[in-house]
Task: structure prediction
Amino acid sequence: MKGERLNPTLWRTCRVLAGATRVRMLRLLMTSPAPTVTEVAGCLGIGLSRASQELRRLNSRGLLEVHRSGAEVRYRLGADPQVADAAGLTAAIHAGLRSCGAARDEVFVRIASCFTHPRRLEIVRAMLRGPQTPGMLRRATGIPYRALKRHLALLHDRQVLRREDGEYRLSACRHPLFRAIVTCLRSDTAPDPS
Result:
């Protein structure tokens, strides 16, 4: 297994990033010198088992560096070199959380939540080719029209897409997390497996 590249699905990684508690945890891991599970639980005011579970979720996406010393395990925000796209995403997490204070964590969660479904990733991937009508998106993605309409509404409401003259266009969002996700989609032209 050593040296083998792991490829967790992007939409599942975004689902993990869309949790408010996990975003608070990421912020803590950025600012604290490698806390233990007990320290994370205490700082966030959550139970030990929940802290452990949330750290496991973040680690499973390749977003944490884990340091073991005897029975003690410490965590830091850092890319697992075996996980494709982890370096870009952890850099975006650093930049995104550093650029806006804790009071703006909801922006981070909102952006991540836009990409928590494989169909929304397919829509945005299709949008990378340029403006698209719903019919063009339907043909490009194979998503049934009613489902497509729902996903387009969510992406539009959250300002990922804008609509002009019957066509959808990607918004010019400058948030580091949005840019990193789009970069992942650009580098991976194959459909995201579910």
User: Anything to note?
Assistant: The longest helix spans residues 86-99. Confidence is low (pLDDT under 50) at residues 189-194.
